């Protein structure tokens, strides 16, 4: 993994970037006020959500418009277990991805039978079903009022403590997803993305492989949802709403879907820009965001990571024209 | 049609295989019998049904009537991934590779799948079957291109790569749909000589379609001539060349 690219002034290898970012994140609580720690916590959670989403989009070639379903299943599972059943935080966080994965298995079974637009629309439809169930099942979920006072135990209550906790959980998940992308499963997933027909002719059951990726992606989205529940201190039905489903899509596009770390970079850029602009002109944030998305897609198709000399695809040598 | 006892020794047999698209009878009652070790050319004018026949045999599309036997077993209706695992490999008329993976990764992925490792989630894949994949790439003459993204390889090299991908699944039967399409004449002979050599070394049975008659008559052991979805003639090259029907509908035409 040598130094990438030539002309770029920020030409560091992926490994150097990771080391730099990890060190910066570790010392952040020593220098930053708690507002920024909370912002960074949220960035880490959204970054995990978008990275899990991008396992499907960037590496599997499947665009889901309904990933909020698995985020919300994770969030509600953790919140309900802690609040209604008095389960300890760690057990609740462990249960969240299991429930999200079960949901992804059930819905994904039907979704992977379709492709492209139909895949996206069916994933959206299932997410709207999840939203409706949460919204209407007042006895369990609190309906529109959500579930309030979902806080972590006192040990993790301070912004710095929950920041470190989130960082560790997200870090482990990112390591796992990175290993998956580079594993034989990841190679076969990329093969399915590149050419499903050829993939069948090397013996891969394409739908089964897509479903497995869908379940893995759903499980990690569930982890992100459960972390967000305790960060937010409450959960609401709009965690499953379609606007939430577009968040990882926009974040991944901004950061770069063709790079493993693109969605993390995208989450950082997205939340920082949102903070900067909403602070000054709250009404205009969606407008500015729309403009940024257009500019990135047209001018910078490899996303923010394209700015720092990241390779378009990992382990693919730079190609001279 | 009742399958006969002679099926036992055959690698591939189709019995009365038919497929129509709307009003067009693309494949019409084709009986094909391919013994082990055969190097069989399937020729015929454009629209004769060659590619459709390949698509039926390899499970890419469902046939209307008839049966397909592979190594003596009825495989009618099996999907491509199951046929691949039973030892049926294939290449396509339009090159079909994993374009954004390197040549090496293309072949490694085929090996991973063949060895049922493609659900391994955590070990780095680049370690697996690297030597085997490099060996296959060397066999087809792509050793030096191994780490290049396959999408930027020259057309002929991409076709060689597709051959290597198909070989990684250790097929008993290889169906090559116009393996030399788009190649210069010299390269066509090279690649078919390579196929013949590999088939000879490994005992692989090969069925291929080809438009270049020089190539066909140079390498094929037997030739089956398709015309309007039916078998017009079959035999060793000399017999086919001498067949009046074949001369009339096919060889007489400019190609």
**Estimated share of beta-strand residues of chain A:** under 5%
Most extensive chain-chain interface: A-B, 32 and 44 residues
Proportion in β-strands of chain B:
15-25%
Span from first to last CA of chain A? Answer: 21 Å
Derived from helix and strand composition plus strand pairing, the structural class of chain B reads alpha/beta
Report mean pLDDT of chain B, rounded to a whole number. 92
Question: What fraction, in percent, of the residue positions of chain A are helical?
Answer: over 70%
Quaternary assembly: heterodimer
Any low-confidence stretches of chain A, pLDDT <50, length ≥5? 1-9, 310-321
Radius of gyration of chain B: 18 Å
Number of strands of chain B: 10
Helix percentage range of chain B: 25-40%
Task: Sketch the topology of chain B as an H/E string, one letter per element.
Answer: EEEHEEHEHHHEHEHEEHH
Arithmetic mean of pLDDT of chain A? 91
Order of strands in the sheet with most strands of chain B: 6-7-8-3-9-10
Poorly predicted ranges of chain B (pLDDT <50, ≥5 residues)?
Answer: 1-5
Shape of chain A: globular
Count of distinct strands of chain A: 0
- What order do the SSEs of chain A take from the amino end to the carboxyl end, as H and E? HHHHHHHHHHHHH
Task: Report the end-to-end length of chain B measured between terminal Cα atoms.
Answer: 35 Å
Question: Could you characterize what this model shows?
Answer:
The complex is a heterodimer of chains A (321) and B (255). Chain A has helices at 14-31, 34-60, 68-84, 89-111, 116-136, 138-141, 159-182, 184-194, 196-200, 206-232, 242-255, 262-280, 285-299. Chain A is globular, with a radius of gyration of 19 Å. Chain A is an all-alpha fold. The two termini of chain A are 21 Å apart. Residues 1-9 and 310-321 of chain A have low confidence and may be disordered. Chain B is globular. By secondary structure, chain B is an alpha/beta fold. Chain B is 35% helix and 24% strand. Chain B has nine helices and ten strands. The model of chain B is unreliable at 1-5 (pLDDT under 50). Classes of the chains: A mainly alpha (321), B alpha/beta (255). The interface between A and B is large, with 32 and 44 residues.
């Amino acid at each position: 993994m040598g130094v990438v690219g030539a002309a770029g002034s920020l030409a560091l290898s992926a490994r150097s970037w990771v080391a730099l970012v990890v060190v910066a994140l570790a010392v952040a609580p020593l220098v930053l006020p708690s507002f920024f720690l909370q912002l960074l916590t949220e960035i880490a959670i959204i970054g995990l959500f978008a990275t899990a989403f991008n396992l499907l989009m960037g590496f599997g070639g499947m665009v889901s418009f309904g990933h909020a379903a698995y985020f919300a299943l994770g969030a509600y599972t953790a919140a309900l277990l802690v609040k209604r059943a008095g389960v300890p935080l760690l057990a609740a966080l462990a249960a969240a991805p299991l429930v999200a994965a079960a949901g992804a298995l059930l819905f994904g079974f039907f979704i992977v039978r379709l492709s492209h637009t139909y895949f996206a629309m069916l994933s959206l439809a299932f997410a709207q079903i999840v939203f409706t169930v949460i919204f209407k099942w007042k006895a369990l979920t609190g309906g529109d009022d959500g579930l309030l006072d979902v806080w972590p135990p006192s040990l993790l209550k301070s912004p710095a403590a929950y920041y470190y906790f989130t960082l560790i959980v997200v870090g482990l998940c990112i390591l796992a997803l990175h290993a998956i992308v580079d594993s034989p499963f990841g190679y076969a997933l990329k093969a399915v993305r590149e050419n499903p027909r050829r993939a069948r002719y090397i013996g891969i059951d394409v739908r089964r492989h897509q479903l497995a990726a869908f379940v893995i992606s759903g499980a990690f989205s569930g982890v992100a949802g459960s972390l967000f529940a305790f960060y937010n201190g409450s959960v609401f039905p709009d965690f499953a709403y379609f606007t939430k489903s577009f968040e990882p899509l926009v974040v991944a596009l901004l950061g770069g879907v063709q790079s493993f770390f693109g969605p993390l970079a995208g989450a950082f850029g997205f939340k920082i820009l949102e903070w900067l602009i909403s602070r000054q002109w709250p009404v205009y944030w969606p407008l500015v965001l729309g403009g940024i998305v257009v500019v990135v897609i047209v001018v910078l198709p490899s996303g923010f990571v394209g700015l720092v000399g990241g390779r378009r695809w990992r382990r693919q040598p730079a190609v001279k024209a | 049609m009742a399958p006969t006892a002679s099926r036992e020794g055959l690698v591939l047999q189709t019995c009365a295989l038919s497929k129509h698209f709307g009003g067009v009878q693309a494949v019409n009652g084709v009986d094909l019998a391919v013994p082990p070790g055969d190097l069989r050319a399937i020729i015929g004018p454009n629209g004769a049904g060659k590619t459709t026949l390949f698509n039926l045999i390899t499970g890419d599309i469902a046939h209307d009537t008839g049966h397909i036997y592979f190594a003596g077993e009825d495989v009618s209706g099996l999907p491509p991934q199951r046929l691949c695992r039973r030892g049926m490999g294939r290449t396509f008329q339009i090159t079909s590779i994993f374009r954004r993976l390197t040549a090496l990764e293309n072949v490694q992925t085929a090996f991973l799948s063949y060895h049922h490792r493609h659900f391994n989630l955590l070990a780095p894949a680049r370690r697996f079957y690297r030597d085997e994949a490099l060996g296959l790439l060397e066999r087809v003459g792509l050793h030096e291109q191994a780490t290049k993204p396959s999408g930027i390889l020259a057309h002929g090299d991409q076709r060689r790569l597709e051959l290597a991908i198909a070989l990684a699944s250790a097929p008993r039967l290889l169906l090559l749909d116009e393996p030399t399409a788009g190649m210069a004449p010299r390269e066509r002979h090279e690649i078919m000589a390579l196929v013949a050599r590999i088939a000879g070394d490994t005992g692989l049975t090969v069925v291929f379609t080809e438009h270049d008659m020089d190539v066909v008559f140079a390498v094929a052991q037997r030739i089956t001539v398709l015309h309007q979805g039916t078998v017009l003639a079959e035999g060793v090259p000399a017999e086919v060349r001498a067949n009046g029907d074949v001369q009339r509908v096919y060889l007489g035409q400019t190609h």
